[in-house]
TrEMBL record, chain A:
Coiled-coil stretches noted in the UniProt entry, renumbered to this chain: none
One GO term describing the cellular component: plasma membrane
Protein known as: Acyl-CoA dehydrogenase domain-containing protein
Cited InterPro entries: Acyl-CoA_Oxase/DH_mid-dom, Acyl-CoA_Oxase/DH_mid-dom_sf, AcylCo_DH-like_C, AcylCo_DH/oxidase_C, AcylCoA_DH/ox_N, AcylCoA_DH/ox_N_sf, AcylCoA_DH/oxidase_NM_dom_sf, Mycobact_Acyl-CoA_DH
UniProt entry keywords in alphabetical sequence: FAD, Flavoprotein, Oxidoreductase
Keyword Flavoprotein: yes
Domain (Acyl-CoA oxidase/dehydrogenase middle) ranges: 126-220
Annotated GO MF terms: flavin adenine dinucleotide binding; oxidoreductase activity, acting on the CH-CH group of donors
Record flagged with keyword Oxidoreductase: yes
Record organism: Tepidicaulis marinus
Needed co-factor(s): FAD
UniProt xrefs under Pfam families: Acyl-CoA_dh_1 (PF00441), Acyl-CoA_dh_M (PF02770), Acyl-CoA_dh_N (PF02771)
TrEMBL record, chain B:
Annotated organism of origin: Tepidicaulis marinus
Protein name as it appears in the record: Acyl-CoA dehydrogenase domain-containing protein
Domain Acyl-CoA dehydrogenase/oxidase N-terminal: 6-118
Keywords linked to the UniProt accession: FAD, Flavoprotein, Oxidoreductase
Residue stretches making up the Acyl-CoA dehydrogenase/oxidase C-terminal domain: 215-343
UniProt cofactor(s): FAD
Lineage: Bacteria, Pseudomonadati, Pseudomonadota, Alphaproteobacteria, Hyphomicrobiales
Family indicated by similarity: Belongs to the acyl-CoA dehydrogenase family.
Family matches, as Pfam families: Acyl-CoA_dh_1, Acyl-CoA_dh_N
MF term (GO), any: acyl-CoA dehydrogenase activity
Length: 397, 361
């Protein structure tokens, strides 16, 4: 156990700090919600890439900074940006999921064409996986792509497609081999959302915003060259992506920021003139969450060490999505309870606190518990892969 | 930057695991539960060969001079095998009290004996955390009067370290005049606690006593209890997974029922991050003094909560069999229950954590 960073890393930390001091004033206030980044957010992202604080390890040829992967450097960048309260690199499905997939499995031409503008925030992607009949059981998806000359012709429907209404491009799973077993008949296509035959219908969520959509495909023609990986290999290509998505969700630095906001809130809100922090029951709940947060934070450090040694941390990794999403949600839940009646105010109501972000978060984070593999699916994974328990018996056909 | 056990630590933990597997199987634990003393003495002698009693004691006094993380991963193994041994008081809290507050002469007299596994040292600090039953001792001139409850490693102790109500620490010999002793039987038969009643009992103060010294002894004790729960909880999960893989109902192993699988997943998901918290809390005792007390509180309270959940859930996975004495699963259940309440239950400990951060008046 040695929690000090070596001088090499401390020097790196100084570099990051110097950058932040120099450029802090140019940073946008926040990166806004998912979706299309603002022009300020794009220029900030491009500045970050230029200095190696975004797309750090992605080769220069593809628009990245070209540093060799060093997980501790990434960690230091995250720590320093968070401490300085400066928005860090852009995170969206294109950057977190599509780019790593293309780098791993795309053709040279695909990488050259898509990685750079995606990293720079100029091309926005959506993820077309789930369908009305295929959520947890994603491999049962039915959207068909048939071959016609040099094109695939796509018919079917996607749902819960985040940011599809703003996206330029989609990475999409379609069934190309309907006669094959379900996992072997899927292909992974990338195409423009402007392609004729695509209709996007925003789907209002419980937060009251249209954070995702239904997407309908009617005879959508996509050149055969726009497949990633081989025909029928889409499931495996997608799994490379899902791996990246799960990694995306356990972010102790972000959780700590939320927790600190909760501490501040509890020092500000009063009932009968008593601050929430002075109420023993609220305070007990707060400290309880703080201990859980500490456990997740140190679990994160443990994962970091395993990753830097190339070891598989097993259970310590498999539990991250389940535990982080739950903890984040609990932090919001306590904030709502602390506010009491004020905690149900919404929209532009008088007396609304923090622009309603706790209320929004409490609902949105429930979406995160469900999306990207539900809590129950996570428990299947933990018990089967982590603990080696038997799989569900197959139903007799 | 490395957040992991070192190779030596893994070896240490393995050697303790092997020692306990061979020398403290469940039937031995059962024997000890009926009669702590004789079994405990011989097992402790065995543990001494591994250097366990003196692991925290400096080499100058015959110990191994290791750190709290080493002690925590050893006690984790004790929890795993519900070992009926006086580790908490004798190997951790008493030596720490002597090192922090004792005179050189006191250290020279007692530390080598502890390190050699020759003596058992009981520790009485419960009243510094919360007073029950009007307990508490007052120090007079070289004497103590009053009573203390839940003295750790009470049975057969050759020496007691007692905190008075003004943060003074004292050495008391079990045969001292005016001292009466009563065992307190608890659910956990693998470790002993008891009561000491003092009537003008002559006691030797540790001259460098302070509120901070008492608090540090308690911090260390709390981290160890958290580690014990970690080990016991881990074993309960493994036992649950194994049992669920064998027991059949409705023509299939119960481990293929999702309800059962999800209970196991929930236990693992709760316990796994706790491991890192225990590691860090133990590491902080040695290396990050500014973080140590808060993290000891977090480790103690968090493992108490996770431990309770694992203990009851693992018992449910075992069905009626888990409720019987046949499997002995209850030894783990009770061990975890004991760890939760000793040295402060989670609500009390969280209140302390709030105080530490200026969140409570
Ligand atoms: C905020 C949000 C954003 C999303 N963004 C996208 C996106 O951008 N692109 C995209 O393609 N999809 C997206 N999704 C869809 C998401 O991946 C699915 O909602 C999710 O996989 C669950 O599928 P489902 O909704 O069909 O639920 P179902 O699979 O119908 O699940 C319903 C209930 O049944 C349980 N269940 C199902 N199968 C099992 C099983 N084997 N064992 C135990 N319990 C089971 C579930 O846990 C759940 O409780 C998003 C979802 C949300 C909430």
């Amino acid at each position: 156990m040695d929690l000090a960073y070596s001088p090499k890393y401390e020097a790196f930390r100084e570099e990051v700090r110097a950058f932040l001091t120099k450029y802090k004033s140019q940073a946008p206030k926040g990166l806004g919600a998912a979706g299309r980044p603002s022009p300020e957010a794009c220029s900030w992202q491009q500045l970050l890439i230029q200095h190696g604080y975004a797309a750090r390890t992605i080769p220069k040829d593809y628009g990245g900074y070209g540093a060799k992967p060093d997980i501790l450097e990434s960690r230091i960048i995250a720590e320093e940006f968070s401490a300085a309260r400066v928005p860090s690199a852009l995170q969206n499905q294109g950057i977190s999921m599509l780019v790593p997939t293309l780098l791993e499995l795309g053709t040279e031409e695909q990488k050259k064409k898509w990685v750079k503008p995606t990293l720079r925030g100029e091309v926005v992607w959506c993820q077309g996986y789930s369908e009305p009949g295929s959520g947890s059981d994603l491999a049962s998806l039915q959207t068909r792509a048939t071959v016609d000359g040099d094109d695939f012709v796509i018919n079917g429907q996607k749902i819960w497609t985040s940011t599809a209404h703003e996206a330029d491009m989609i990475f999409c799973l379609v069934r190309t081999e309907p006669d094959k077993p379900k996992h072997e008949g899927i292909s992974y296509l990338i195409f423009s959302m402007k392609t004729p035959g695509i209709e996007v219908r925003p789907l209002t969520t419980m937060t009251g915003h249209a954070e995702f959509n239904e997407v309908f495909f009617t005879d959508v023609r996509v050149p055969k060259t726009q497949i990633v990986g081989q025909r029928g290999q889409g499931w495996f290509v997608a799994n490379a992506t899902l791996k990246h998505e799960r990694g995306m969700l356990g972010d102790p630095v972000a959780m700590e920021t939320r927790f600190q906001a909760l501490v501040d809130l509890m020092h500000e809100e009063t009932v009968d003139g008593q601050r929430a922090i002075d109420n023993p029951i609220f305070r007990d709940r707060l400290v309880r969450l703080q201990a859980e947060l500490a456990a997740m934070k140190f679990n994160g450090l443990r994962l970091l060490t395993s990753a830097s040694k190339g070891e598989d941390p097993g259970l310590a990794r498999l539990i991250v999505k389940l535990q982080s999403c739950e903890l984040t949600h609990q932090i919001s839940a306590l904030a709502i309870d602390v506010m009491g009646e004020l905690g149900v105010l919404y929209d532009d109501s008088p007396y609304l606190r923090s622009h309603g972000s706790w209320q929004w978060g409490y609902m949105f984070q429930l979406g995160l518990i469900i999306g990207g593999g539900t809590a129950q699916i996570q428990k299947n994974i933990i018990s089967e892969r982590g603990l080696g328990m038997p799989r569900e018996p197959k139903l007799a056909k | 930057m490395e957040f992991a056990l070192s190779e030596e630590q893994c070896l240490l933990q393995d050697s303790v695991r092997r020692f306990l597997e061979q020398n403290s199987p469940l039937d031995k634990v059962r024997l000890a539960a009926g009669n702590t003393h004789t079994v405990q003495r011989s097992l402790w002698a065995g543990a001494s060969e591994l250097g366990i009693p003196g692991m925290l004691i400096p080499e100058d006094f015959g110990g191994m001079g290791l750190g709290f993380l080493d002690a925590a991963i050893v006690y984790e193994m004790f929890g795993r095998y519900v070992a009926p041994l006086p580790f908490l008081g004798t190997a951790v809290m008493a030596p720490l009290a002597l090192m922090l507050a004792g005179s050189e002469a006191q250290q020279e007299k007692w530390l080598p004996k502890i390190a050699a596994g020759e003596i058992i040292a009981g520790v009485a600090v419960t009243e510094s955390i919360g007073v029950r039953e009007d307990a508490g001792v007052k120090a007079g001139k070289g004497t103590l009067t009053g009573k203390v409850l839940f003295v750790i490693d009470w049975a057969e102790a050759d020496l007691y370290i007692v905190a008075d109500s003004d943060h003074g620490l004292h050495l008391v010999l079990p045969g001292a005049k005016g001292l009466s002793r009563r065992a307190l039987d608890t659910i956990d038969k693998t470790r002993s606690v008891g009561e000491l009643v003092f009537d003008q009992v002559s006691a030797e103060p540790l001259p460098r006593s302070s509120a901070d010294a008492v608090a540090r002894v308690i911090d260390a004790g709390r981290v160890m209890l958290a580690a014990d729960t970690l080990g016991a909880g881990q074993m309960m999960i493994e036992k649950s997974v194994a049992y669920a893989g064998e027991r059949k109902q409705f023509g299939r192993v119960i481990g293929s029922f999702q309800a059962v699988k999800h209970l196991c997943a929930e236990m693992a998901a709760a316990l796994e991050p706790s491991r890192s918290l225990v590691w860090y809390a133990a590491h902080a005792l040695d290396e990050v003094p500014g973080d140590a007390r808060l993290m000891a509180c977090h480790a103690k309270s968090h493992l108490s909560e996770v431990g309770r959940f694992v203990a009851r859930t693992a018992t449910e996975v075992h069905g009626g069999m888990g409720f019987t004495d046949l499997l002995g699963l209850h030894y783990w259940f009770k061990r975890i229950g004991f760890d939760r309440q000793l040295l402060g239950g989670p609500e009390l400990v969280r209140l302390e954590a709030a105080h530490l951060q200026g969140w409570a008046a």
